[in-house]
Amino acid sequence: MKVEKNNSTEALNTLLSLNKYRFEGYESATITTEEADLKILFARFATTSRNCHTELIAELNKLKAAVVKGNMASGKFFRIWADAKAALKSKDRKAILSACEYGEDLTTAAYEKILDTIFSETENEQKQLLVSHHKRLSAEHESIKSLYEKC
In this predicted model, what pLDDT tens digit does every residue of 74-126 receive, in sequence order? Predict the structure, then answer.
């Protein structure tokens, strides 16, 4: 099965949008939280998503595909960061980690869905890139999950 350019382009733009929400959310969380360990963790997560975002833009440019400037991720991602922001203001560590953990669930699930549907029967640079992103994001998901479970 050959991946059609428009399907892969749409998928890459969706993940681009998702990573933008993620790095903006974690950058804001880094500034807002007063907990030193969370500041470090959130800064690392923001950097990961900023790097994924940059790599996705480079891939779209290589494909000579349009880079969508608006939002292609679902409204769920916007709500997650709104919930996380509210939890940060309340300074409730468990609520903060719960909101972040849910966001990480959705992020890794989005990558898995795209890898399973659009890139399932192909082996190319795009798939390798997304698998690499998924591994990094999954490791970060496990970090948040572990912290949440300790609360």
Answer: 566 667 777 777 778 888 999 899 989 998 999 999 999 999 998 888 778 89
Q: Kindly tell me the sign of the dihedral angle through the C-alpha atoms of 125, 130, 134, 140.
A: positive
Q: Cα dist. 94→20, 30, 32, 84, 137 in Å?
A: 24, 16, 15, 11, 21
User: Per-residue pLDDT tens for 18-29?
Assistant: 999 899 889 989
User: How far apart, in whole angstroms, are the C-alpha atoms of residue 151 and residue 149?
Assistant: 6
Q: Which of 90, 98, 112, 80 is nearest to 147 (CA)?
A: 98
Spell out the alpha helix ranges (H) of the chain.
5-32, 36-62, 75-90, 93-117, 125-150
Q: What are phi and psi of 82, to 5 degrees?
A: -65, -45
Q: What are phi and psi of 68, to 5 degrees?
A: -75, 125
Residue 143, amino acid:
S
Do 33 and 46 contact (CB within 8 A), yes or no?
no
- What is the residue whose two structure tokens read 């490791």? 139
Cβ burial of 134 (10 Å; 0-12, 13-18, 19+) is buried
Dihedrals phi, psi of 135, to nearest 5 degrees: -60, -45
